[in-house]
């Protein structure tokens, strides 16, 4: 049996599973304008968080334009199965309209995708992210009109008892609800969703298994928002983005 260190992110990085750059000094400021002066290169695997973000947004732009690569080209390539070098780990909601691989026009091996109801972060999901996150970017992807977040907001705001299968999910979403109530706004469930994304980002940034890489600039944990109306993915750190 391998010892625990052999499974650590540091060991995986040391074997060349992903190239890193420690020249960045932080995460949130990197994504205020992620596309400025950073051309994407689809031919190379992203080596930095910013390059990975550009790959995400360029793939999403293709998908929005309807210029995605043919499904057969993406998912049936035997060459895609030979190596696993994902450039991002994505935590997203389980709703059927939000598949990250399609939204980012990704190929097999490009993304490590973990999905949960409302994008909630549980201990098992945290462990899974820490295990697979050898890529330079972790994207926490919320989305417009999340039915699970809306149900949680309704239950918490009215005091109605939710179905048993929603209770643990709603409990996990309660901190986001409390922040949404304090924030106010015309669309409280949307605000709650954004708070849930932000809380998840912060939790992972300070996770002791990930924080050394975040602090060095080798890894960024970024909140994203997928608009069902436009099909676009935007960074929640981008003040120019329109989320509602």
Strand content: 5-15%
Structural class: alpha/beta
Question: What is the rounded Rg?
Answer: 18 Å
What name goes with the CATH superfamily?
Carbonic anhydrase
CATH overall fold name: Beta-carbonic Anhydrase, Chain A
Q: What does the overall shape look like?
A: globular
Measured distance between first and last alpha carbons: 50 Å
In the sheet with the most strands, the strands line up as 2-1-3-4-5
Give the beta-strand count.
5
- Ranges where pLDDT stays below 50 over 5 or more residues in a row are 1-41, 239-244
* CATH class descriptor name: Alpha Beta
Overall pLDDT score: 80
- Please summarize the sheet with the most strands: 5 strands, mixed
Number of helices: 10
Element pattern in H and E? HHHHEHEHEHHHHEE
CATH architecture: 3-Layer(aba) Sandwich
Please bin the fraction of helical residues: 40-55%
Concise synopsis of the structure shown:
With 244 residues, this protein is α/β, with parallel strands linked by helices. Helices cover 42% and strands 12% of the residues. The protein is globular and about 50 Å long.
Question: Could you please describe the fold and organization of this structure?
Answer:
By secondary structure, the chain is α/β, with parallel strands linked by helices. It has a single domain, classed as 3-Layer(aba) Sandwich (Beta-carbonic Anhydrase, Chain A). 42% of the residues lie in helices and 12% in strands. The chain has ten helices and five strands, in the order ααααβαβαβααααββ. The chain has a five-stranded mixed β-sheet, with helices on both faces. The N and C termini lie far apart (50 Å). Mean pLDDT is 80; it is low at 1-41 and 239-244.
